[in-house]
Amino acid sequence: MPRCASSTFLRRTLAVVSFVTAACAGETPADEHPEQALPEGISVVDASGSQRFFATPARRVISLVPSATQTLRALRTDSLLVGRTDFDVQDWLAHLPSVGGGLQPNLEEIVALSPDLVIRFHGEQDSRTPARLDDLGIMHIAVRPDRLQDLYAGAILLGRVTGADSAADSLVRALEAGLAELSQRVEQLPRLRAVYVLGGTPPWVAGPDTYIDEIIRLVGGDNAFQDLGALYSAVSPEELRAREIDVVLVSDASQFDATLTPQARIVEIGDALEIPGPHVVDAAWRVAELLHGTSLR
């Protein structure tokens, strides 16, 4: 993915996770130990498929994934944070030192902050960081938000490792209920063929089996690039012109050449879909109203 598109989606997170209890320490493949009763301690499986064991909930956390950082705040566990990334610019994080980018962060800064947990993005873009964290003996878990289910599972994972299980369960139920209500609200509206353009030259678009694709379908749209063959990919101007598109969703309309889709309505949605975190319900309602051009609440 080009730099102009990747900076946004490096901020995305939250991972496929399941958790099992087992009397083991550190990292082990998830399928080597049968599920056992564990009177104390926490065992989770993160987005990388690694099993991690915690004797107690984490108390000094560095999140390298801004959407995970926002989830921690939604769980009311943001007081555990001791570091942030350069992408975390909210006022409530301003007092925390930055460890650089979410990928290939400054490891010296991380070590200096003495975390007992680092939350990182799982992906081939950065194989160095998990290996170095292992070398340094710093516990880490991986998250990756490719789909809505990953968002829910990531919230459960973060609640699990910070001792906020109940809050995580409540958050997931609220997100599911809010999106279900929206889905019912748009059920009778005409479906629109839409494309989400991330930016770049040539333009990068969202394909099938992505968080953005799910939101488009949930709010009453059909992804014009459902057959893309990749989660995200660049497409040629000719391919854009050849598609039947009713609405182009773009974060910044000034960065999109409207002549590529002359019959489509261009809708600027800002950063509503940039971070698949705890604000997804509000973001989806906003996208639905912009897509259909009407108030829904």
What does this structure look like?
Strands 8, 9, 10, 11, 12 and 13 form a 6-stranded mixed β-sheet that branches. This protein is globular. Helices cover 32% and strands 18% of the residues. The protein folds into 2 domains: 3-176, 3-Layer(aba) Sandwich (Rossmann fold); 185-292, 3-Layer(aba) Sandwich (Rossmann fold), CATH 3.40.50.1980. The chain is built from 9 helices and 13 strands. Helix 5 (148-162) packs antiparallel against helix 6 and helix 6 (165-185) runs parallel beside helix 9 (280-292). By secondary structure, it is α/β, with parallel strands linked by helices. Residues 1-39 have low confidence and may be disordered. Helix 4 (128-136) links the parallel strand 6 (117-121) and strand 7. It has helices spanning 3-9, 66-74, 107-112, 128-136, 148-162, 165-185, 211-218, 237-242, 280-292, and strands at residues 26-29, 42-45, 50-54, 61-63, 81-83, 117-121, 140-143, 192-199, 204-206, 221-223, 232-234, 247-250, 265-268.
